[in-house]
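Narrative of accomplishments. A recurring question from our advisory board has been how the design workflow behaves on a single, concrete structure rather than in aggregate. To address it, we present the structure tokens for one chain from the evaluation set, followed by the sequence designed for it. No filtering or post-editing was applied between the two.
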């Protein structure tokens, strides 16, 4: 059943939390309300969706699976299987939650020495963890996969695993989920690179324009050092502009006073 849980202020200041996608952060916090007093609950995307995102039609089951995969890869949860049933446990649960007289869990604890390549645990391990969870700050990293190989900025990663690369409607696949996470990370890095490059170019153009304007003001005999004419108008830095304006005004006045029917 859902439970009231707490969030520490340091959660929002943690560097490790800040690297998680926003939706994954909310899913992680939502899991706290669904876990028992030992930080465990069923690893079932449909149940997570119904409990945490019931009114958000745009959040799909695939999105929930992506969130759980992301949280596991970053060491925020452990996903494991016991006797054919899938469960998850929030890592460092007792650091996140201080519970007075916690209840015993009816869900088996995750096995210990069987972490596989996807940040999950399977049944075939030896022994179980004993005692309390390790203490640490919000940003403390738990057991996690080795970081993926860096992707060249010019090389966009595929959206699916090699097996399902050309499959328009692939079945649920953890490797595809990992590929989507890599792609999202690459796109975010690429967007930041493009934004930074654009800002540098814009700054360079602005400096060139400012330098050109200063040179024009210094060379102009009509305006003051601020670039304005004595009457308060912006100076065009054109010595002939005043004469042209005067001649144009005179021609306009003459045209207004010219008798009708004459050319």
């Amino acid at each position: 059943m859902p439970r009231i849980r707490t969030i520490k202020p340091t959660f929002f200041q943690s560097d490790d939390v800040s690297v998680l996608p926003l939706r994954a952060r909310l899913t992680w916090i939502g899991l706290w309300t669904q876990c028992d007093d030992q930080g465990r609950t069923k690893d079932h995307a449909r149940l997570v969706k119904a409990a945490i995102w019931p009114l958000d039609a745009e959040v799909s089951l695939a999105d929930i699976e992506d969130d759980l995969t992301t949280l596991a890869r970053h060491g925020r949860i452990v996903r494991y299987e016991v006797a054919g049933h899938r469960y998850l446990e929030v890592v460092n649960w007792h650091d996140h939650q201080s519970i007075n007289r916690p209840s015993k869990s009816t869900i088996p604890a995750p096995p210990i020495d069987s972490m596989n390549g996807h940040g999950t645990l399977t049944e075939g391990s030896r022994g179980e963890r004993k005692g309390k969870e390790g203490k640490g700050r919000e940003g403390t990293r738990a057991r996690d996969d080795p970081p993926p190989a860096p992707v060249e900025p010019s090389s966009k990663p595929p959206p699916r695993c090699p097996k399902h690369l050309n499959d328009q409607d692939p079945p649920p696949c953890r490797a595809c989920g990992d590929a989507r996470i890599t792609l999202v990370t690459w796109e975010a890095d690429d967007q930041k690179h493009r934004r930074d490059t654009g800002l540098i170019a814009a700054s360079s153009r602005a400096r060139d324009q400012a330098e050109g304007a200063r040179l024009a003001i210094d060379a102009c005999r009509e305006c003051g050092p601020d670039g304005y004419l004595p009457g308060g108008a912006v100076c065009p830095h054109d010595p002939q502009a005043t004469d042209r304006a005067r001649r144009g005004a005179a021609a306009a006045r003459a045209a207004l006073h010219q008798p009708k029917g004459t050319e």
